[in-house]
Amino acid sequence: MDTDKRMSGPRRAALAALVTLSALGLTTACGGSDGDDAKGRSPLEPYALVTKDLTGYTVTAGKADNWSSGQPEADRPECRPLAHATGDKPSPDAKDTVARGVNKTADPAKGVSVSLSSYSAKRAKSLIGDIEAALADCRSGFEATLKKATTRYTKVHAEKAPSFGDDAVAYSMAATSQGDKIVMNFVAVRSDRTVALFAGFDLRDYGKGFKVPEHVVERQLAKLEKLRKPAQPGKSGSPGKSGTPEKSGSPEKKPEPPKKSEAPEKKPERPETPEKKPEKSE
């Protein structure tokens, strides 16, 4: 079933003109790959969600037709992190990005876009902070432009962040596009050098929106945590269950006993006790 086909032309155009959201196109289609067939194209592919990871949801990979690509630019520099988060990547300097669409099987109009992006260690740590700063500076709204199409975000609101990963932030944004009010809900979570970005939509009722389900975030973070390896740098062997490197296949050499000197050390002789003479009887 294709939710995108059930929308009217003007409504579909309004949403497509709003943002790219690499997975926004994904969430409009129920068909296509569920992610299992997409492995191998990126180092992040094995850590992306697939349908078997979630009960009651369908996971798709591949973008729907007629959806834009790129990174929207904000009219104010301080709002740039929020505009970029609606694009193909959470920010243009992501080293690598994979995306999935997650739809409720019983109601495919309710969907979540999920992207995983890798960064340098320094940039990964600063990205969540940049979004938090933008939320404080851009509460009254801002404008974002993509391919000469401008969208006005009328409300930006910080939400309670989930307790996953190393850093996390949650927020909602309301926008108007071609007369339609559209509400989007976002969650961004950092795990080491990788940032997972979630965006929830209701493609039937734009103005109502769809909150990102916590268990979708939890399942994605559980897979993402497998990227973290406790192996100690500079030591061979893969990490064992205890987190310490396992021993290599060659047997460990036992230390050789200390060499004895050529002349064995002579033990000190035990002094003889004098023989006791019997006492004479009177």
* Topology pattern, helix = H, strand = E: HHEEHEEHEEEEEH
> Order of strands side by side in the largest beta sheet?
1-3-4-9-8-7-6-5-2
Mean pLDDT: 75
Strand content: 25-35%
Structure summarized in a few sentences:
The protein is of the alpha+beta class. The chain is built from five helices and nine strands; from the N terminus they run ααββαββαβββββα. A nine-stranded antiparallel β-sheet has the order 1-3-4-9-8-7-6-5-2, with helices on both faces.
List the helices and strands and how they pair.
Blueprint: H1 3-6, H2 9-18, E1 57-60, E2 73-74, H3 80-84, E3 96-104, E4 110-118, H4 121-137, E5 142-146, E6 149-159, E7 167-177, E8 180-191, E9 194-202, H5 214-224
Antiparallel strand pairs: 1-3, 2-5, 3-4, 4-9, 5-6, 6-7, 7-8, 8-9
Structure description:
The structure is a single chain. The chain is an alpha+beta fold. It is built from five helices and nine strands, in the order H-H-E-E-H-E-E-H-E-E-E-E-E-H. The chain has a nine-stranded antiparallel beta sheet, sandwiched between helices. Mean pLDDT is 75; it is low at 1-14, 22-39 and 231-255.
Question: What are the defining features of this structure?
Answer:
282 residues; alpha+beta; nine-stranded antiparallel β-sheet; 5 helices; 9 strands; 17% helix; disordered N terminus
